[in-house]
Amino acid sequence: MSESQDFGPRPAWMEDELVREIPRRKLDFLGQLFEQGQGLNQKEMMALMLPMLRRAKAEHLNFTAQEMNAAIAAIRKHSSSEELSRIDQILAKAGPQSGAKQGGPS
Question: What is the pLDDT of residues 75-98, one digit of tens each?
Fold first, then answer.
């Protein structure tokens, strides 16, 4: 079985230089989370995140604070202002345990 799955063309944020050092397996997981979270309200997003986080743990996908910051920064860089607002709301709900700052690296 292949370690990464091909879900078609990758979103622009996954090709950004900020995430080049993150393994494809991790990016694919984050891509799925981001895609499935589109259009969900905060309550629905939190309900989605809990099983996804359990799945990441079961698959031994551990993200460093640096990887999360880079991924969030890349996603923010390629997001609309409406998406940025939703990202900020989700990160605020996640609190300091998320390990990611809203601004991320420039």
Answer: 999 999 988 888 887 777 666 544
The answer to whether position 62 is within a domain reads yes
Domain range for 30: 12-98
What is the DSSP code string of 78-99? T--HHHHHHHHHHHHHH-GGG-
∠ CA 17-101-28, nearest 5°, is 45
Q: pTM score, two decimals?
A: 0.70
Number of domains in the chain: 1
Model pLDDT, residue 2: 39
pLDDT of residue 102: 41
